[in-house]
Structure formats: C-alpha cells, structure tokens
Amino acid sequence: MKAAFDTNVLKQVAIEIENIKAEYGGVVSDESIDLVAGESLQKLAGSKVPQFVPLFVGRFTRERLQELTGLRPHPRFSLLARLGASDSRPPSAAFVLSIP
C-alpha cells in the first residue's frame, strides 16, 4: 500500500529527510536514510492528522538510525541549524524576539 499525502506534507517530509541526511552524513548512506524514512512514512499512511506526519517521520527515522548505528547526532548538524548559523542570535532568541 502506498501512502497518499498532501503536497505540503510531502515537502515538509523531504525537508526533514534532508535534515537527517545532514545529521548522519558520512555515517549512513543517503539511500539507507531514504529507505528507513520511506518505511516510517508507510507506517503513517492512515494518519488522521497528516500535519504531524513530517514530525513523526523524522522521529521514527532518527530512532531507527540510532538503533542501527548506535549514534545520536547532535542537532546542530541539521539543515535548519546550518541555515540559521548566519544569524548571530541563537535560534531561541530569534524566536522570542519575533513574538509580539
């Protein structure tokens, strides 16, 4: 059975998978990460709240990769963290300052 998700959900899943590839780069091949993430996505095929699918795909994929490798990478290697590196403020400060 193939999972059918909204285009926005699939874009968010793709971003999450890219983050995981950045975290596990040099340790696990991209193909292996794609395989594990695909299995995670299939587990969520019947999700009643698809907005949370990217979150759970990331969680399930990281848990499985941690089981396989024994490695728990530091989140600073994620794509979002690397994109925010040009900002001199820590991510939490940027978030707090944007609240009205």
Task: Present the secondary structure layout.
Elements: H1 7-24, H2 30-43, H3 53-69, H4 79-83, H5 91-97
Provide the gyration radius in Å.
15 Å
What is the N-to-C order of secondary-structure elements (H for helix, E for strand)? HHHHH
Beta-sheet strand percentage?
under 5%
- How widely separated are the two ends? 45 Å
Helix content: 55-70%
Number of discrete helical segments: 5
Tell me, what's the shape? elongated
Query: How many domains is the backbone divided into?
Result: 1
Poorly predicted runs of 5 or more residues = 85-100
Main sheet: strands, sense, barrel: none
What is the number of E strands?
A: 0
The secondary-structure class comes to mainly alpha
Q: What's the overall average pLDDT, rounded?
A: 79
